[in-house]
From TrEMBL:
Name of the protein described by the UniProt record: UvrABC system protein C
Transmembrane regions listed in the UniProt entry: none
Cited Gene3D superfamilies: 5' to 3' exonuclease, C-terminal subdomain, GIY-YIG endonuclease, UVR domain, UvrC, RNAse H endonuclease domain
Origin superkingdom: Bacteria
UniProt GO MF annotations: DNA binding; excinuclease ABC activity
UniProt keywords, alphabetically: Cytoplasm, DNA damage, DNA excision, DNA repair, Excision nuclease, SOS response
């Protein structure tokens, strides 16, 4: 049930299109949605009964705001912009890049063909996506042999090796007519569109000729090329009678979970399939529309010629925004493809449901246990800190992030401490906390729901002091306490550093244990890296004539003291190091290595 404050705001909502932003008690944006009628949509969250993820969202809403747009199309565009900016917890979010390789023909006077994951608006030709880099590389190698363009770096006054191998048209020593390139590019485009009959016929004829002329190595090479077409290019079953590059989307929804299938149809074949599972807040149709818009808003994504979607989605708006036809087929093979995608989506969801439910109980349930024990509102994101040093040297801090009980390694951070030069837990904590959250404030990124400090009350109170008195932030800080066996014991929280005991057999206790072990592991690993690097540097710095530039050269080339010691004086001299200095390095490091070996045998 909505609070009196929210009830008042609900009465002021306009019956217009736009976007709405749901906020939690900490004013963090936790969900962004769009609506043709803001009044009806936003009121539905508070005036209807919900379950699953929607119920959890509604329970956390403390406030909302709306942005009115002129048209429904504008609300689509605004929604995607807001999702990318705020990364709300309850929205479907996609990675910024596709990660798919493409084959590219460059837009140059002497064009090249290459593999790229970086799609640019440079008027080059892009083909793909390919299922993996290996498939793209095999296709590229085939094209370079059969339909060569330019493989050299350009004019050099003499033929390159690739020209002699028949894999370059000769820009290295002559001017290749533009028409020659254009004709070759048309052949490549035809081949990559699935027209393989012509080239198979040509290769078969060339293979027979080579065999008759007893050029058996050439005949074998042509045979392998024919085999490549059969097992790689043609191994995918033809599923369409036309060769239009198209993407197809369909879904299946059950128990608040949305299963999505994306088919990439290229060369009349199903080249790649992408499957996604999401617990959702809005209707399946609204979430699907948002998914499609984000899907094509990612970096390095090449639009197809056509998109196929199921009925009920806003095809016209999607088509206008993307600038390509978006259709819902009613009959024939395209309709059959949509049905196949939906069936696959259903099978994936049914297969994974039990595992998903078990995982949800272990992770989301564990978070709920912790927040309940601490008397805090529901939370999702924990950031945990730990420090590491050896006798006050090479001080570092490290931070790990857990979202709903799962480690989010892409958000981990490392800190080489700048203001602390001795073992001071409070000062180390203050610097790490200050650097982390002043940056989040500056960049307008969302704050975590809780901060965990490994080490107890000293670190916990140092963190609270910086947050409250310097940054004016009200983020709950919890200390993780260990027992005499250095194992997780309990939590510290509150104004009086109260001990909060969790059931050692509970999922919440197990989660705290995992967080404590993970942040400790991450800090120790980072410290070892820093300490090893400093040890190498300091041993080299002790040698007369070795400055920072020489030291960096040596470490970059050889990687370790032992490898530098094993190198010859000539090897060192070839790096530009004077002969006397090279001899001194060799003698000094061999002594160090011999001493180290002698001590290891003591």
């Amino acid at each position: 049930m909505a609070s009196e404050y929210l009830e008042h705001k609900l009465t002021l909502l306009p019956p217009l299109p736009g976007c709405y932003l749901m906020k939690n008690i900490n004013s963090q944006i936790i969900y962004v949605g769009k609506a043709k009628n803001l009044r009806n949509r936003v009121r539905s969250y508070f005036k209807s009964s919900h379950e699953g993820k929607t119920a959890r969202l509604v329970s956390e809403i403390a406030d909302f705001e709306t942005i009115v747009t002129t048209t429904n199309k504008e609300s689509f565009l605004l929604e995607i912009t807001l999702i990318q900016k705020h990364q709300p917890y309850y929205n479907i979010k996609l990675k910024r890049g596709t990660g798919y390789p493409y084959i590219k023909i460059t837009n140059e006077r002497d064009p090249q063909i290459l593999i790229t994951g970086d799609v640019k608006k440079d008027e080059g030709y892009y083909f793909g996506p390919y299922p993996n880099v290996y498939a793209a590389e095999e296709t590229l190698h085939f094209i370079q042999k059969v339909y060569p363009l330019r493989r050299c770096n350009g004019y050099q006054g003499r033929p390159c090796l690739y020209y002699h191998m028949g894999q370059c048209l000769g820009a290295c020593f002559k001017e290749v007519p533009e028409k020659t390139y254009q004709d070759q590019i048309e052949r490549i485009k035809s081949f990559l569109s699935g027209n393989t009959k012509v080239i198979k016929k040509q290769l078969a004829k060339q293979m027979q000729t080579a065999a008759v002329e007893m050029q058996y190595e050439r005949a074998a090479e042509l045979r392998d090329q024919l085999h490549y077409i059969e097992v790689t290019v043609e191994k995918q079953k033809i599923i369409s009678t036309d060769k239009t590059p198209r993407d197809l989307f369909n879904f299946y929804m059950d128990k608040g979970w949305l299963s999505i299938q994306v088919f990439f149809i290229r060369q009349a074949r199903l080249m790649k399939r992408e499957k996604r599972l999401f617990p959702i807040v809005d209707s399946a149709e609204e979430e699907m529309a948002s998914f499609i818009m984000q899907f094509y808003n990612r970096k390095n994504n090449v639009l197809p010629r056509e998109i196929l979607i199921p009925a009920g989605l806003p095809a016209q708006e999607i088509s206008e925004i993307l600038g390509i036809p978006v259709r819902t087929p009613q009959r024939g093979e395209k309709r059959d493809l949509l049905t196949m995608a939906q069936k696959n989506a259903q099978l994936v969801l049914e297969e994974k449901f039990r595992l998903l439910e078990l995982d949800a109980r272990k992770t989301t349930g564990a978070m709920q246990e912790i927040t309940d024990a601490l008397g805090l509102p529901a939370g999702h994101k924990i950031e945990a800190f730990d420090h590491s040093h050896i006798q006050g040297a090479d001080l570092v801090s490290a931070m790990v992030v857990f979202t709903d009980g799962q480690p989010n390694r892409k958000l981990y951070r490392k800190y080489k401490l700048r203001t602390v030069d001795h073992a001071d837990e409070a000062a180390s904590t203050a610097e790490a906390i200050r650097r982390r959250y002043s940056r989040l404030l500056k960049e307008h990124h969302p704050m975590p729901d809780m901060i965990f400090m490994d080490g107890g009350d000293i670190q916990m109170n140092a963190a609270k002091d910086v947050l409250e008195n310097e940054l004016n932030l009200a983020i709950p800080v919890i200390g993780m306490v260990k027992n005499e066996h250095h194992k997780t014991a309990d939590l510290l929280f509150g104004a009086t550093d109260q001990h909060i005991n969790l059931d050692p057999k509970s999922q919440g206790f197990y989660l705290v244990q995992r967080i404590q072990d993970e942040v400790h592991r991450f800090a120790i690993t980072f410290h070892r890296q820093v300490h090893t690097k400093h040890s190498l540097s300091s041993r080299l710095d002790e040698i007369a004539g070795v400055g920072p530039k020489t030291r960096n050269k040596l470490l970059k080339k050889f990687g370790s003291i032992a490898h530098i010691a094993e190198a010859s004086i000539d090897d060192l001299h070839q790096l530009g190091i004077p002969q006397p200095t090279a001899q001194l390095i060799k003698v000094s490091l061999q002594k160090n290595v011999q001493v180290a070996r002698g001590s290891s045998h003591d």
